[in-house]
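Me: I keep going back and forth on a fold encoding question. No explanation is needed for now; the record alone will do.

Assistant:
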Amino acid sequence: MGGTVKKVVGSEGVLAMWKGVNAAWLREASYTSLRLGLYEPCKIAFGCTTPENTTFVKKFLAGSAAGALGSIAGNPFDVLKTKMMTAEGKTTPSIVGTAKDLFAHQGIGGFYRGIDSNVMRAMVLNGTKMACYDQTKGYVVQYTGLAKSSLITQFISAVAAGFFMTCTVSPFDMVRTRLMNQPADAKIYNNAVDCFVKICKNEGPLTLWRGFMPIWSRFAPTTTIQLVIFEQLRGLMGMKSM
């Protein structure tokens, strides 16, 4: 991780660490808003109406459904973000220029490259995130006596969710990145399953978890901040804690 940072900063400058940040903002505005906001409605849709019938599996399914819907909305911005981040050189490409180039060479379908792996990743990510957060909150409340609305309860639960997310999502991140970055004129992988099989066969299964620490270092703060702020905003709006 340290070597990669040093190489990027040395060849492209410090600002290269923020390449694609505007596309990332747009992705979060669509994807994250939906996957967080739709979790509670999805829980109700899956029959989570009382503590007795609210199982971990139902929580996971609700989180997965919300994640899938958010991923479909955010996929175009995700593709643009990936293209901008992997562009070489000190000049940061514009989001409009990247979008025009992508459309010119690949059409509207280019914005939905890797949609299968992205939706699968979002389902696993959000299912793990929301179910683990929800479940951990229950354990913290049960064994410490703290309230669900307590900032300490929310913080501990969010940190735990961030770790388990990294464990389950890393393979999907690897597959998604490979699919999005493959050249349009030199197709290497046919789909997400084909990519997964070829990585395991040619590079070994552990390759799927390559970059675990950078992913965790990103998930740990973002997950904690996202969930704590989300819970605090719910409280300000008169809504109950999850």
